[in-house]
């Protein structure tokens, strides 16, 4: 059994949480730091519990590892301490509890704000920041005295930051988008996060990356995973078009077009490999994907087959 899923006793889990709370509630003495190090070294289970709770803490704070260590002495809010204490139950729950904490298939529905497939929402947050959620998206919002943190759990968002001395940050499963804005979008794709910056600048920091953060400039976009940052490029024309309910194709591969369209509808939307590289141009309203599919045979030598309402395939036109 791996370290990430083996059993941790409730007692040790509670001790790990208590150590984290104590270290962050003030500047610990040298003796207490020695006691903490001794506790970690006393048993493999102690170190395993500490690594788990520190992973959870980094996600709650929205900071990469090196920044989290530098902020170790910073005070935390009562609500955050209470949340950490509650997590001691999951930390001691072995395979089921830890995997639930890591994967959280239920989490989008428990998020502060979420959308269903094909839905978009336009919100104004407490500080005046505009938050737009694209299809099938979920975020948690955590504002405190030191930062404005948006935890993107799923999908895609656009942010128009309000004037505020606190930095606006977005945390994703891959890392941190820091001091961004005033207008930018963040999208999750498989194991990548993609940031599109429309104004200002931003710092991109993967979660497992000790190097200098990448500085992204207005008019650029970039993708990154937990370890690496890609090469910045020019903005994609669809990086903001979805907020107007449009999908823009400018010589787009048919396979890519259908993959993008499938985000806005339930079920499977397939593309025969023999026509995947056909090119398509035009502006298409996302609120009516069936109409878009009906128009495809007029633009390309293809036919659309509906096997069921939720299983559609685009194939070469029959001779």
What characteristics describe this protein?
3 domains, alpha+beta, 10 helices, FecR_N, Jelly Rolls, Phage tail protein beta-alpha-beta fold, 32% helix, sigma factor antagonist activity, 319 residues
Task: Describe this entry's structure for a reader.
It holds the Pfam family DUF4880. This is Protein FecR. One of its GO terms (molecular function) is sigma factor antagonist activity. InterPro entries: FecR (IPR006860), FecR_N (IPR032623), Ferrdict_sens_TM (IPR012373). The protein is an alpha+beta fold and 319 residues long. Helix 1 packs antiparallel against helix 5 and helix 2 packs across helix 3. The protein folds into 3 domains: 94 residues, no CATH class; 132 residues, Jelly Rolls (Sandwich), CATH 2.60.120.1440; 72 residues, Phage tail protein beta-alpha-beta fold, CATH 3.55.50.30. The chain has a 7-stranded mixed sheet. Strands 2-3-6-9-10-13-14 form a 7-stranded antiparallel sheet, with no helix packed on it. The radius of gyration is 23 Å and the shape is elongated. A hairpin with an 8-residue loop joins strand 13 and strand 14.
The strands making up the biggest β-sheet line up spatially as: 1-4-5-7-8-11-12
| Terminal Cα span | 57 Å
Radius of gyration: 23 Å
| Count of discrete domains | 3
How big a fraction of the residues is strand? 25-35%
Q: Helix- and strand-based class?
A: alpha+beta
The helix-strand sequence is HHHHHHHEEEEEEEEEEEEEEHEHEEHEE
CATH topology of the largest domain: Jelly Rolls
Largest sheet at a glance?
A: 7 strands, mixed
* Shape summary: elongated
Tell me how many strands there are.
19
Pfam family, one: FecR
Domain FecR protein: 112-202
InterPro entries: FecR, FecR_N, Ferrdict_sens_TM
GO molecular function: sigma factor antagonist activity
């Amino acid at each position: 059994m791996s370290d990430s899923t083996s059993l941790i006793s409730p007692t040790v889990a509670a001790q790990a949480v208590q150590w984290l709370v104590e270290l962050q509630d003030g500047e610990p003495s040298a003796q207490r730091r020695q006691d903490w190090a001794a506790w970690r070294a006393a048993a493999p289970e102690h170190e395993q519990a500490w690594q788990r709770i520190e992973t959870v803490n980094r996600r709650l704070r929205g900071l990469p590892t090196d920044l989290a260590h530098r902020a170790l002495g910073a005070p935390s809010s009562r609500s955050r301490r209470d949340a950490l204490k509650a997590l001691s139950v999951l930390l001691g729950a072995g395979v089921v509890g830890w995997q639930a904490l890591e994967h959280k298939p239920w989490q989008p529905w428990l998020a502060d704000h979420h959308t269903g497939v094909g839905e978009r929402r336009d919100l104004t947050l407490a500080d005046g920041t505009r938050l737009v959620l694209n299809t099938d998206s979920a975020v948690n919002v955590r504002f405190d005295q030191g930062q404005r943190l948006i935890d993107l759990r799923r999908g895609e968002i656009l942010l128009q930051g309000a004037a505020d001395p606190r930095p606006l940050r977005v945390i994703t499963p891959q890392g941190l988008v820091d001091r961004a804005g005033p207008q930018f979008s963040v999208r999750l794709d498989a194991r990548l996060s993609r940031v599109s910056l429309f104004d200002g600048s931003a710092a991109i920091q993967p979660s497992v990356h000790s190097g200098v953060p990448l500085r992204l400039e207005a008019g650029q976009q970039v993708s990154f995973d937990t370890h690496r940052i890609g090469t910045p490029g020019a903005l994609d024309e669809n990086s903001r078009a979805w907020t107007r309910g449009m999908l823009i194709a400018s010589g787009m591969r048919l396979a890519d077009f259908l993959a993008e369209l499938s985000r806005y509808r339930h079920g499977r939307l397939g593309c025969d490999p023999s026509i995947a590289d056909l090119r398509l141009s035009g502006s298409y309203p996302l609120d009516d994907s069936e109409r878009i599919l009906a128009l495809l045979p007029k633009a390309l030598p293809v036919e659309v087959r509906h096997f069921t309402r939720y299983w559609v395939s685009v194939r070469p036109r029959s001779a």
